[in-house]
Amino acid sequence: MKKILHQNDSGFVVTCRHILFENKPIAFAHRDHIYEEGDSGWQFLCGGGHNLEEAKLVTMDEIMKFDSGIKSFISEPAGCKFRKDFEINKWKGIKVYNSFAKTINWLRRVVFKSK
Ligand SMILES: [Zn+2]
Predict the structure, then answer these.
(1) Cα of 42 to ligand 1 centre, how many Å?
(2) Using one digit for the tens of pLDDT, what is the confidence trace for 13-51?
């Protein structure tokens, strides 16, 4: 088991090609513990399914260009999850650990392993 590193709010984030290249909005955000230097623990994904080829690493500054609203919760600790409510254009915390959060957590671990 790797050592958990200190929280780094300016590290790299995992996102998907749909957000970067296909104009899909960020729908889900989830933060995991940090095991690698330079990682923020964050992942920001659209609402669709994802495979490894669709996952991309970008900087925190880069992802904020797509949705500045994420600034409001970027310092929340590992384990937090948020979804965008598009009807009111606001981010909301997700209390229940749903299957989507599990999926994106798995995706992030695989992306960092394959770096
Ligand atoms: Zn996507």
Answers:
(1) 15
(2) 999 999 999 999 999 999 998 988 999 999 999 998 888
